[in-house]
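The methods section describes the discrete structure representation at length, but only in general terms. An entry of this sort, consisting of the sequence and the corresponding backbone structure tokens, reads as follows.
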Amino acid sequence: MATVTENQLRELTDLINNRFNDLKDDIKAIDKKIDIYIAKTDERLNSIDQGLADLKRQSEKQDNRLWVLISGMCLALLGILAKFALNP
């Protein structure tokens, strides 16, 4: 049966520790990338929300314009009808 010396055990522990340190570094790098992607996604969502708010404001303005146009046409029609009714 082979015996394991203390130096061999140290080498093995150093090798294992180096592998774990490499894994920790890789995990930190991945974590940074994920944080960057999260920040980019949040920024995109904020810009989409802002765009939707702008569209809502524009549609409200168009609704107001439409009602002004319809009421103006109704008043003009009433004026024309009143002119024909009062002036034979």
Summary: Residues 6-86 form the longest helix (81 residues). Helices lie at 6-86. DSSP finds one helix and no strands in the chain.
